[in-house]
Amino acid sequence: MKTTLLNPENYTRSPWKNGGGVFTDIADAHRADAPRKDWDSLLWRFASTPILAPGPFSHMPGIDRLQMVVEGRGLLLKSPTQEFDEREPFTTVRFTGELEIVTELEAGPVEVVNLMARRGAAEIDLLALKQPGDHRHLAAGTHLVYAPRGECRIRLDNEEFAIPRTGTLKVELAGPSQLALVSGVAVLGSIRLLV
Question: pTM score > 0.85 for this model?
Fold first, then answer.
């Protein structure tokens, strides 16, 4: 097991693909043979962003997306064929980057976290741990434990970690592990590379 605490002061910022907002980039991975890191070389990406006003989502062909509201409430995602209800915080929705989506805000701005992956390159999962004792079996792969609302404490196997507000613990596992929430609220993003 390798653990790395990612400090919010070191996160980078980048524009949405459609230019409509700004991501806070927390962690990502790109193809090793890519001449530069861009959307074409992306394997996966974990980021947060405010949604301040209704508007369209970026078109991201070949990208699978998971999203969760961590601050605020009242977000709906609407496409021509279906709706994704994120009105309650910590609800995960899954959709493809090809889908034409427009946001609707029922109660003002929200903050969301996104976990994206190139289809066929990685399997991803995103969930919230909200009650002390909530636990999750972690498989081999990369796991990101994000503290959206203040410090949270977790236990990995027999070791305890404190994660500051908006900090992230990156956990790289070669084998299975057990994660338990000790205090606070945590968002867990899990990535298993397929390539």
Answer: yes
3-state secondary structure of 69: strand
134, 178 Cβ separation under 8 angstroms: no
Residue 47 burial (CB count, 10 A)? 21
Per-residue pLDDT of the chain (195 residues; tens, 9 = 90+): 999 999 999 999 988 877 777 889 999 999 888 777 777 889 999 999 999 999 998 889 999 999 999 999 999 999 999 999 999 999 999 999 999 999 999 999 999 999 999 999 999 999 999 999 999 999 999 999 999 999 999 999 999 999 999 999 999 999 999 999 999 999 999 999 997
Residue closest to 113 by CA, chosen among 56, 58, 71, 54: 71
Domain boundaries, the chain: 11-119, 124-193
Range 124-193 has CATH code 3.40.50.1000: no
> Can you identify the CATH homologous superfamily of domain 11-119?
Jelly Rolls (2.60.120.10)
Residue 189 · residue 124 · CB < 8 Å = yes
